[in-house]
Amino acid sequence: MSSGQVNNIGIGVHPPRSACDDENCPFHGSLRVRGIILTGRVYKKLMKKAVVVERVTTQFVRKYKRYMRKRSRISAHLPPCIGVEVGDMVRIAETRPISKTISFVVIENLGRGGENV
Ligand SMILES: [Zn+2]
C-alpha cells in the first residue's frame, strides 16, 4: 500500500494525523479489521508495538442480586501512527491474528476521560 494515503477501514473513527509505514496498520498498511470493536484502558505498553488493554465490565449475579465487576485484559497491536500512554482509553478492533496472543489492533485514542466508558 502506498504511504501517505489513509485507508478507509470501514469504521467511523478519526484517522491518525501522522502516517506510518507499518504493514500491520489498518490505516497505512494492509491489515483488515473485521469482527467486534471494544473500548478499554491501556494497562501496559509492551516493547514491540503492542499494548495490553484492560476492560472493566459488570455482570449481574442473580444469587446475590448485585453486580460483579469483571476485568479482562486483551493484548492489541499498536500502530506507530497512534500514540497512546498508559491510562488512555482506546478503541480496539478485531483483526486477523497478528501473533500468538494478538488479534486486536488499536484504532483510536479516546484520551483520559471517564472511569469506564
Ligand atoms: Zn499507521
Question: Can you offer a commentary on this structure?
Answer:
By secondary structure, this protein is an all-beta fold. It has a domain at 34-111: OB fold (Dihydrolipoamide Acetyltransferase, E2P), CATH 2.40.50.1000. It is built from no helices and five strands. It has a five-stranded antiparallel sheet with strand order 3-2-1-4-5, with no helix packed on it. The protein starts with 32 loop residues before the first strand and ends in a 6-residue tail after the last strand. The model has no long low-confidence stretch (mean pLDDT 89). The structure holds zinc ion. Zinc ion binds next to loops.
Subunit arrangement of the protein: single chain
Q: Give the class-level CATH name of the domain at 34-111.
A: Mainly Beta
End-to-end distance, in Å?
34 Å
Helix and strand run: EEEEE
Query: How would you characterize the largest beta sheet?
Result: 5 strands, antiparallel
Q: How would you state the average pLDDT, rounded?
A: 89
Percent of residues in helices comes to under 10%
What is the CATH T-level topology of the domain at 34-111?
Answer: OB fold (Dihydrolipoamide Acetyltransferase, E2P)
Helix/strand/pairing category: mainly beta
* CATH architecture group name of the domain at 34-111: Beta Barrel
Please report which band the strand proportion falls in: under 5%, 5-15%, 15-25%, 25-35%, 35-45% or over 45%: over 45%
